[in-house]
């Protein structure tokens, strides 16, 4: 297999200056400028595979940006959106409409708790909404000084000035400051990089208790919330132990701090359950969602809050309500499409499928690569896998950027898209990452495993 030319019958465009036009007019996301840069120009996609403008096919081991959970080319999703666009394309949620009502009810079912839902368009906005709700809620219950948020280093929560402030990766912030004030960071529960001589259990507890310490030192009546992903994803697939998550939940409850769980990547089956936090059996106060909510087909995001938080806003003062408006959030076509997306996931049991495929992939990688001199750690959470590359296994020194990139390039040349994640400033952008569509076939997964293993093994010859 590998990179195959599209052939005349594929109907794929030929270059015709496309890349020149791209370079002239289109500003990409997170892409360093290089004079000879050649971004993939994707023109077709089906299942787990994408095709570029030159007819090359790739298995999309990143589901776009971790979002195409049901895979590409689902006609029922497109049809649901098209029907709704023709019936009623837009109405704001200052009033209401049917697709939003139905989806809000459905999300309550998926969350397995008593939640009320606010809609937006992106993960960043869902988190911004959560921060505003948390602060105002604290005011409503008589804690007006509770404005701060605690997040973890290496966590990612979005690109807007509040969500970026919550983000714990310095390179994304540098040069864009000042960001929103009031966001504090603590260490991530990265047991692979725990101090020598400490048990993983003791380290996980230490990390959780750092949150408690910060709350105490800051003054417990000044902290509104803790925000965390169930598993740190963009920061390098850092999977906490049960006891860490339990301890964070205990601390938040004890100090009256809202626990905001960012399910933007971990949600919608990616983790092997409906939501990442379901794997830990905790009940968040606020859940933020985007990406897999529509499998990326249209923009839609959501902030779900426990009913008691919503009810604290049901006061009679003129400014007591949530004074937050979002023109496009909860667009009817996006909601209808999200509903179809969730129905596909239910019908095909995609969370369960992600659990199985993820476990098989993790086992396969461990079997083939566990002894490799450059492989420090292999981690997984459902169909979300990280391989931490190191210079040598004793010192755990992170592998150089060029080494990590060479594996990604080899995968690409063989027809597989993967990524790297971590923290550039800390010198740890060394975690190879894959998160293919949950609907990937067994053959897709075999291809992914083979190419990834061969690409990592090629490092032996370097
Ligand atoms: N939270 C997490 C965990 C994310 O991974 C992302 C996006 N990568 C966001 C929030 C922000 O989402 P968006 O890019 O849709 O604003």
From TrEMBL:
SUPFAM superfamilies: PLP-dependent transferases (SSF53383)
Annotated Pfam families: Aminotran_3
Disordered as annotated region, ranges: 1-14
Highest taxon of the lineage: Bacteria
Keywords: Aminotransferase, Pyridoxal phosphate, Transferase
MF (Gene Ontology): pyridoxal phosphate binding; transaminase activity
CDD domains the UniProt entry points to: OAT_like
Entry similarity comment: Belongs to the class-III pyridoxal-phosphate-dependent aminotransferase family.
The protein, known as: Aspartate aminotransferase family protein
Organism: Paenibacillus herberti
């Amino acid at each position: 297999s590998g990179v195959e030319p599209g052939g005349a019958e594929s109907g794929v465009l030929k270059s015709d200056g496309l890349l020149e036009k791209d370079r002239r007019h289109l500003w990409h996301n997170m892409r360093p400028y290089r004079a000879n840069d050649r971004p993939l120009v994707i023109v077709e996609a089906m299942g787990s595979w994408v095709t570029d403008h030159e007819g090359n096919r790739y298995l999309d081991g990143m589901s776009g940006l971790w979002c195409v959970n049901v895979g590409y080319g689902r006609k029922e999703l497109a049809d649901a959106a098209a029907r709704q666009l023709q019936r009623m394309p837009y109405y704001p949620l200052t009033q209401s409409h049917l697709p939003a009502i139905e989806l809000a009810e459905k999300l309550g079912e998926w969350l397995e708790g008593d939640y009320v839902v606010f809609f937006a368009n992106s993960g960043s906005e869902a988190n911004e909404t959560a921060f505003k709700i948390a602060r105002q809620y604290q005011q409503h219950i008589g804690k007006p000084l509770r404005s701060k948020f605690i997040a973890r280093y290496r966590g990612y929560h979005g690109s807007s000035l509040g969500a970026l402030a919550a983000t714990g990766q310095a390179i994304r912030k540098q040069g864009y400051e000042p960001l929103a004030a009031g966001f504090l960071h603590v260490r991530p529960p990265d047991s692979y990089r725990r101090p020598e001589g400490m048990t993983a259990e003791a380290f996980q507890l230490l990390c959780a208790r750092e949150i408690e310490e910060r709350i105490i030192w800051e003054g417990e009546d000044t902290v509104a919330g803790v925000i965390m992903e169930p598993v740190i994803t963009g920061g390098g697939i850092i999977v906490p132990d049960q006891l860490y998550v339990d301890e964070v939940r205990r601390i938040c409850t004890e100090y009256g701090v809202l626990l905001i769980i960012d399910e933007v990547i971990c949600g919608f089956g990616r983790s092997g359950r409906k939501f990442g936090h379901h794997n830990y059996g905790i009940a968040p106060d606020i859940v933020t969602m985007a990406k897999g909510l529509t499998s990326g087909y249209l923009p839609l995001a959501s902030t779900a809050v426990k009913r008691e938080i919503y009810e604290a806003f049901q006061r009679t003062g003129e400014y007591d309500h949530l004074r937050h408006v979002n023109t496009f959030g909860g667009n009817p076509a996006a909601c209808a499409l999200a509903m179809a997306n969730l129905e596909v996931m239910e019908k095909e049991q995609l969370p369960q499928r992600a659990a199985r495929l993820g476990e098989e992939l993790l086992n396969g990688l461990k079997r083939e690569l566990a002894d490799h001199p450059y492989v420090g750690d292999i981690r997984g959470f459902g169909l979300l896998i990280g391989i931490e590359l190191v210079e040598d296994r004793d010192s755990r020194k992170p592998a150089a950027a060029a080494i990590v990139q060479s594996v990604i390039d080899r995968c690409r040349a063989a027809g597989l898209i993967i990524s790297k994640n971590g923290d550039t400033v800390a010198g740890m952008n060394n975690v190879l990452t894959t998160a293919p569509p949950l609907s990937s076939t067994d053959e897709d997964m075999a291809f992914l495993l083979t190419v990834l293993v061969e690409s990592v093994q090629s490092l032996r010859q370097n």
